[in-house]
Amino acid sequence: MLIASLALNRLHGLVVHTQRRLGSSPAAFSSSTRVKVDDLGNLSWEIASIKHHMQIHTVTSSPNISRIIPMSRPWSSHHPLPPPEYANMTQSSESTTSSPLAITLRNRVLSPPLGFNPPNTPPTLYTSAVSHFLSIPWCACLIQTPNTVPFVPQCFNPSSPSRDQLLGATLATPRGVQQVLSFFHTEDETHIQDPSRPIMHVSTLFALGEGLCGYEGLLHGGMIMTIADESMGILHDINNALGKVGSTFGAANVTAGLEIKFLKPGPINETVLVNAWVDSVEGRRTNIKCEIRDGRGIEIAKCSSTWVSVRPKI
Could you tell me which PANTHER family the record lists for this protein (predicted)? Predict the structure, then answer.
């Protein structure tokens, strides 16, 4: 912006100087008049049109600066927006490649105890996750509690390269998200089979590698938000997989709002526990809360969110 302002001042001075030498007024400068300015360092600007009131209509430039916006339509320094003249260009170029956003409901929950074995699932995905967390004493205590049902959530078992890629592929590396295992507790023997009794609380274990740090030795805050969001979404996934009946079940759900409070630094090269529960249901909206704790039971963050069930295509 500073360079553009200086350039405009120089251009204005050049035009005034030219007027005085030629004895002409601003009105005498038509759209065919061209003035070249070659003394602005590495910039070479060509005025394609100088009209009344000394407004710049079109400017071509060096690769460093592509366009100067007319003075009557400046970019806001506080809330910048793309220039209006680019809107049609962007829409036309994107319309040829974009397609309607499809949000379809799929069940990729993996749980042999529940009889869930989605096709094309890596053969050792479940056993490796269970073995990993059983090797950590405090995790083993949690998943071996009576009436506990473990499962690998569908966010860690993608069905294709175009779905569930963030945790299931992009971050699923030895230095990223190493293992994920969720579990819930049944109230009695009929809890799972009864469609009118949803699962209201799900816990998820995340084994996190050193590649997820921000500051040295500390888990990145964006990653904390990611595992919080995924853990709350798992509540919908498991209820859909179990065929639970409700205003928000049987349809895909997306995050409509999320508020998080960071309480303590998060660890890397360790396992964290996320407890998520349904706080309330209002029509198509589900209010879900969660807490994130490390292996010592220290609360790292807490989060509240609103989820909305959506149509298959939006």
Answer: THIOESTERASE DOMAIN-CONTAINING PROTEIN (PTHR47260:SF6), UPF0644 PROTEIN PB2B4.06 (PTHR47260)
Query: What H or E segment, with its residue span, contains residue 131?
Result: helix 125-134
Helix (H) or strand (E) holding 286: strand 285-293
Nearest to 237 by CA among 184, 279, 187, 301: 184
Could you read off the pLDDT of 233-282 as tens digits, one per residue? 999 889 989 988 877 776 777 878 889 999 999 999 999 999 999 998 88
- What region, left, alpha or beta, does residue 84 occupy, with left being phi > 0 and alpha being psi -120 to 50 degrees? alpha
**Which position has the higher pLDDT, 53 or 77?**
77
Query: For the chain, which domains are there?
Result: 2-95 (no CATH), 112-309 (3.10.129.10)
CB 307 within 8 A of CB 253: yes
pLDDT tens figures, 219-235: 999 999 999 999 999 99
Separation between Cα atoms, residue 183 and residue 135, nearest integer Å: 16
Instruction: Give the C-alpha separation, 170 to 163, whole Å.
Output: 11
Q: What average pLDDT score do residues 161-181 get? A: 84
Q: Which of 50, 77, 48 is nearest to 61 (CA)?
A: 48
The answer to which of 33-37, 182-186, 195-199 has the lowest mean pLDDT is: 33-37
Question: Given pLDDT bands bounded at 50, 70 and 90, which one contains residue 66?
Answer: very low
Measured between alpha carbons, how far is 310 from 251 in angstroms, rounded to an integer? 7
In the sheet that holds 270-282, the strands lie side by side as 148-151, 177-185, 201-208, 270-282, 285-293, 299-309, 253-262
Among 290, 287, 282, CA closest to 306: 287
> Residue 57: helix, strand or coil by DSSP?
coil
Secondary structure of residue 278 in the 3-state scheme: strand
